[in-house]
Amino acid sequence: MGPDVPLLNDYKQEFFWKRFPQTVLGGPRLKLGYCAPPYVYMHQLVLFLTPWLLGGVGTLLYQLRMMDDTHAGILSGALMLGAGATLQTLAQCVARRTGTVQRLPAARMFVDNILADEEEVEFTHCVAPETVRFVVPGKRFMVNVVLHTVLAGVLCGFGTWYLLPDRLSAVYGDSGVGLGAVVPVFVLSWVTLCIGEYSLIVNTATETATFQPQDTYEITPLTRPLYILAFIAVDVALRCGGGGVAELQVASQVLHVLFVALPVLWALGMLSPVDALLLWAMEQILVHGLGGSPMATNHRLVVMFLSSVCVAVSTFFIPSSLAVVLFTVAMGYILSQDLTQVTALFRGKKHDPPTLSLGWFSLPLSVLLLAGAMTEAGLLHQLSPSPGNLSLASVGFWGSSSVAPGPQVVVGWILIALLLVTRVLRELQGACVFWGLFLNPLYPRQVSSVQTFKRRTRGLRAAGLTRRVLLNFVSPLAMIAFLAMDTSLHKLHTASLAIGFTRAFRSVWQNSEDALLQMVVVVIVKLADGDGTAHQWHELGTGVQLIVVSLISDRLSQFLAKMKFALTVLITSWTETKQRRQSAGALLALNGALCPLLLAVVLLSALLAAPLLPLFTLPVFLVGFPRPQRSWPETPGTSCPCPDSVYYQQLSARLASALKHALANGVLGSAGPGSHFLGRFQDRVAWITVLERGYGYCTVNIKGLELQETSCHTVEARRVDEVFEGAFDRLERPGRFLRFLNAHWENSLTPCSALPVRVYSDARNVLTGIIDSPDHLCHLRSDFLKTLLWILLCQCLQDKAYSIRRAKGHSLQASGRKSQNSQHPEPPGPGDVKMPVASQGHPDSSSSPNLRGRDSSSLSSFADWSDEDDLFGPVPARKPVKMIMVRTEQSQTGLEPGFSLPGSAEIHSLYENMALASLPTLRPLGLGLGMGLGLPATDKGRENQIPTVTTNITTTTFIDPTQPLNFSCPHSESLSLPTAWMNAPLPPSRLQALRPCFPEEWFHFCLSRMVMQGFWEGEPEQVCRALQEDQVLRGLYSQVALSCLVALGADAAVPSPSLLFRVYCGDAPLSDGLDWLRANKELHQLTLRAFRYSVKLLIDQASLGPVESLEELYTTLQDYHNDWFIGLVTERGWHDSVVQEKPFLFSLGQDLTMGTYTGRVLSLQENLVQVGVLNEECVRGQWANLSWELLYATNDDEERYSIQAHPVMLRNLTVQAADPPLGLVMNHASVGVYCQT
C-alpha cells in the first residue's frame, strides 16, 4: 500500500463526522445522515437547555434577592430532579410497552452499539414510542435510573450555586477582572453544565477517551458529571475555609477558566474515564507515595493499595521511632514479595499461570535476610545520636569541612560507590551501551553455537552474578543503614514524614535499583549544599525528599522517551519514503512553527504520566488520557488461538526460564514495570512486557505474534533481523570509530542480549527426488511390513506387561478402578509425560483409551506400565541385550516328499508357472551367522524380487478365525492377536501371492530381542527357539500384516508418490479390505502409524544412507517412538507433542502451487533467542492511538494507514501485540519469574 492510503475510508469518514458533534455536545444527535422531522431536533435542543432553564430560575431568584444562594441551588436541584425522574419514567414506560430494555451481551455490545447508531428510524409523530426511544434511550439497570436521576439533581443544584454571577465576581474581584470577563465565563460554564447533564440523564455520547471496549455497567454517563463535581468541590472547600487560603483562591480562579474548556478536553480525549482514572491514581500513589510497584491485575492493585495505605496510617500512630523503623523495614520486605505465590507454596498448589520460583528453601533465606535487616536497622538507629546531641552543622550541612563526617555520610559515599559499580556491571552485559548509542566491544559477536556463546560470555555472567549480589543483598542493607541513622526519623508524627519513610523503607526492597539512584541523588544534594542554603529542601526530611526525587526522575525519563518518540514520528514521516504522505511537508512546517506547543504537549503528557498520542500515527500529537501503565483494562491472558499458538505455548515457558537469569543479572537493563522487549527466533516473534516487579520476583507477560507473515509483518520482521544482526554479528564497516556505533540507534528497538532457550527449530525441505524416486519407493513395502510387525509385537507385549503388573498386585487401588471404568487413567508419575499412541497415527486416535501411554527409551521394564501405557511404555533404563544363538538341524531345512503341514500351501501352488530349478534356494534358519544373530548379511528386505528366507515358506499356515489357535509354543498365547484382525475379506490367493514378502528374519530377530527382556519365564534360548518354530504364530502375524498391506492399497512393488501421500494422510484409496481395516479402529491406527514410520524411514535412508543391519533398524524404530512424533501438523497429537516437548516432530505435506511434496521437521534444542528492548513510550503512544482509532472512530480497515509497515517504529508488530480484541496475539501467558539468588 502507498503512503497516501486514506486515514479513514469514505464510510468511516461519514460515520466519524456524525459521531464527533455528538461527543462534543454530550449526546444530542443533530446529524443523522437521513431525513428526520424537525421535532426530533427540537426535542433534543429543549432537553439540552433544560438544566440552564431550571438553573436560571434559582439564579434569577438569587439575583433578585428573593432567596439566598443555598436555597437557590436547592430549588434548581429539585426542579432538575423532577425533570429527570419524568424523563426516565417516560423512557421506562415506552420500553415496557414496546419491549423490555435488554442487557446486551458483553461480547457483542460494542458492535451492537455501532449498528444502533447507524439504524434508520421511521418517525410517525412527536410523542411516538420510536421518537421517545430515539431521544431518551433509557437505562438498562433500574439502580442506574435512580442513581443517575439523583445525581442529575445534585449536579444542577451545585452547578447553579457554583455559577452564580455574584460568586464569579467575588472569585475574580481581586484580579481586577470586570463584568466583560464574568459574563462569557458564566455563559460558557452553563454550556459545560448542560453537556454534563445531557450525557447523564438523556443520552450518553461515545467518549473519545474510551478505556473499556464495552460499557457493561453504564459507567460512561458518570464521567463528565464527576469531573464537574470535582471542580465544584474546590470552590466548596474555599468557601468552607472562609477564603483565607491563598492557594485555594488561586486554584478556584484557574479551575473556573478550565471549567469553560472542559468540553474541549472531553472532545480531545484528555480526561480519563472514571475507571481508568481511579486505577491510574491508585497506581501513581502506590508507586511514588507508598513505594510499591505497578501491579499485574486490577485486583492486585486494589489489594496492594489498601494494604500499603494501612501500613502508612499505622506508621503515623506508632509512638516510638525504633518501633517505626522495625515495623516499616519488616512490612516493606513483606509487601515487596509476591504474597500469592507464598500462599500457594503453603497450600501446595500449582499456580496458573506458571511460576518459576525458588521453592521451600527460599523461606529460610528470606527469614534470615529480614532478621538481619531488622537487627541492623534497630542497632544503628539506637546508636545514632539523638536530635538533642546534634548541632545544626552536623544535621544539615554534610559538605562543611569543619565537621567530621558522621556515619551517615560514610554510608552515603558507600551508596554512591554501589551505584557506580552496579551500573557499570549492568552496562557491560548488554550488546549496546550508553542508551543504545554504542556497541559493547566486550560482547561476543558472530557466535554460531550455544556452547560457544556460553563459553565466551563466562566473564559477563560473572559480572552479572556480582551485580546481583550487590543489588539484592548489599544495597538494601546499605540503604536501610542510611535511613535508620537519619535524624528526621525522630519527627515522624507529621503525616508527610510518616508517608515518606514508609515509602523509603518499602522501595529499598521493592525496587532496589531505582531506590539506590534516588538515595544517591539525595546524598549528592546534601554533599553539594555545603553552606546550607537550601533550608526548605532540608526541612522536608529524607523521606519526602525521596518522594520528590522519585517523581522528578520518573517524569524526566518519560519526557526524554516521549521526545525521542515524537522526533522519530516527525523525522521518519519525511525520511521514510513509504511513509511520506502529501501532507508530510505541511505537517513538518506546522510542527516547526508550533515547536513551543509541541514541547508543551510532550511535557504535559510526561507530567500526567499519560501516553503521547500521534493521531493516526501522523506527526499530530495529542495528550492521551492517563491510564494504568499496562495500557489495557482486562487481566492479561486473552489471546486469539490458532494452530500455530502451540509453538508459543512451548516457547513461553522456556523463555520465562531464560528471563529468570537475565532479569536477575541485569542483562536486559533495569527492566522496570512497563518495559517492553522483543524476542526473535526464526519466524517467531515474542512480545515480552514486564507487568510487576518486586524483591526477587518479576511478573512478565509473553505474547506470541502471528507466524503467517503478511507483507507488512515481513517488512518489519526483516528490519528486526537487521537490527539484531548489526549488534550481534557486527559486520565490518569502514572506520575505526563507526564500527562501534549502533547503526540503528534511531529505531525503537535496541538490542540487549541473546538468551539460550530450549526451543523448536523449524526446518522445511522439498522432497523432490526422494519421495518420487522409484529407487526409494521400491523399499516401502518391505519397510512397512517390518515396521508393522514390530508395532504389533510391542502392542501384545504391552498387554502382557499389564497382566503381569496386575498379577503381582502392584497399585491395587488404581488397577481396581481401571477394571471398573477404563475412562479414569492412572495419573502419571513425576517426570512422566502422557501421550496417546494413536495420536501419531490418526486424528481421531484419542478415542481409543487403550492406546494411550508414556514415552520411554526401552522395553526392558514393566514396573510402571498401566492399561493406558503406550505401545512401547516407559522404562527407566535399558538392560544389556544377550544375543541368542539358536541353530536348527539340517533335517529341518526341507520337507520330505509327500509331507505337508495342515493348512499349508504347496510351493507349486505359488510358482506353478516356474520351474523348480529356477526358484531360489531355501536355506535353513541359522541365528548364529552374519551379524551376531545368524541373519544373512545379504538379505535386508530391500530386493524387489521374492526375498530369500531362512525357513521353508510352505510351512506357513493359513489362520481360520472361526477355529481356536493351536500354538505349538505355550508362550505364543501372549502374542496372540484379536480374532477380528484375522478375518479380512480378502481372497486367500492374493495373500498367498504376497507370502514371500513376509520378513521372517526380521520377525525372528524381534522375537529374540524381546525374549531377552524377560517377558517369559524359562531358559531364553529354549523360549526363543519355541517361538521361532511356532508356525501358527508366524502364520498369524503374516496373515494380519499382509491383510493390512492389501487393505491400504500399498501392496504394489513400487507405489506411486500420490498413493504414498494419501495413505500417510489417512486417506487411503478405496480397496479390498479398507472398510474392514477402518472398522478395527485400533488396528487401523497401528497400521497408519506403521506406514508413517516406514515413510520416515524411506526419507532417512535416502538422505543418510541405507540401514546396514537389523539391529540398526530395531534401534531406529525405537528412536522413532521415543523421540519422534510422525504424523500431520493438523492432528491433535502434533499439538500435544509440542506441549510435551517431544524431541523431534515430522510431518509430510504437499505444495499445490509448486506441485512438490514437502517435509517439515521440528527439532527441540537449545538455540539463541535474540532479545531487544523497545521504547516503551513509543509502544504506549501507538497503543493509545489504536484504542482511539478502533473504539471511537471504529476504523477497523485492514489496509488502514496506521497499521502499515513502519520499519523504525515497528508499527505493525506493535498493533499485533495489543491485547485482544484490538490486537492479534496468538498466545498470551503471564508468568511469575523469581529471579533472586
TrEMBL record:
UniProt-listed Pfam families: Pecanex_C
Transmembrane segments: 41-62, 141-164, 176-201, 257-282, 302-335, 356-375, 395-421, 587-613
Polar residues biased stretches: 812-824
Cellular component aspect of the GO annotation: membrane
Residue ranges of the region described as Disordered: 811-862
Keywords for the protein's UniProt record, in alphabetical order: Membrane, Transmembrane, Transmembrane helix
Domain of life: Eukaryota
Pecanex C-terminal domain residues: 1074-1224
Record has Membrane as a keyword: yes
Tagged with keyword Transmembrane helix: yes
Compartment(s) where it occurs, according to its Swiss-Prot or TrEMBL record: Membrane
Subcellular location, principal: membrane
Family named by the database record: Belongs to the pecanex family.
PANTHER family: PECANEX, PECANEX-LIKE PROTEIN 4
Name this polypeptide is given: Pecanex-like protein
Protein species of origin: Astyanax mexicanus
